[in-house]
Amino acid sequence: MGGVPTYAVPPGFLGITRRDPDADYVVAGIPMDIGTTNRAGTREGPAAIRRASRMLTDGEHPEHWVEPASMSIADIGDFDLALGDIPASLAAIQSQAGRIGHLIALGGEHSLTLPLLRALAQRLGYPVALVHFDAHLDTWPDNFGQAYAHGSPFYHALNEGLVDPRRMIQIGIRSPVQKTVMDWTLSRGATVLSAQDVHAATPAAVAARIQEVVGDVPAYLSFDVDALDPAFAPGTGTPEIGGLASWQVQAILRRLRQVRFAGMDVVEVAPAYDVAEITALAAATVAWEYLALLGA
């Protein structure tokens, strides 16, 4: 016997063993955890999502009839970070993402989206559309006194011109928020669909609204698991009641075939607060649905 025993090899997303970054679609973990809430703990999120993805490896997507694991996809492991140094970590994420064509990022907390958008906008040469599922706007100018944290990525993204605000839509918003923050977000041109808006509509209507806002330009999907109600995703740092159900998210995503997605992340999985892996499985399923959408 020789080589590395299988139990010592970190599991790839969907059991994928390909590791090179030249695949059409590249999965990478980003274990970012600045810890600016009372319930930090997203550092283990990527590993938990990969483990939960084992539930999704047997069979094709029942609507698109695509087997995501059979696509040209690699899992290159986790990005390197500068532990304890936020600006250096953001720069490291941007540098590593800049070398990847189509990235599926497993978080980690939401601050990681800013450097990913920086890398994508730099590669494309223009701002992208944004489809953002979340309980929170994440357009605060600071987060507990820190300029760069999980409550402010889209404040910076808008100010830096990384995202076209007229093609930015936020879905599932419902947390307490200062009126000045909401007014600033809307004044920039962003579209906000609250969780109550989604509940009062059909998935088809929500998907149609997303398509209408985004149009035909390249779009980025950022999915915070706290968009889901805590009943479906307890394992997250800032849970908010009244959120989306898992079936609603799936039904909306499956209707976004016309969106020209150029990358995505799923963030804020905190395994320490999870129950029976249901949050990690939800996050893994969002990434799986995304891949099936691309392969349809």
UniProtKB/TrEMBL annotation:
Binds 2 manganese ions per subunit. Keywords: Hydrolase, Manganese, Metal-binding. The keyword Hydrolase applies. GO terms for biological process: putrescine biosynthetic process from arginine, via agmatine. Mn(2+) binds at H110, D134, H136, D138, D224, D226. Belongs to the arginase family. Agmatinase subfamily. This is Agmatinase.
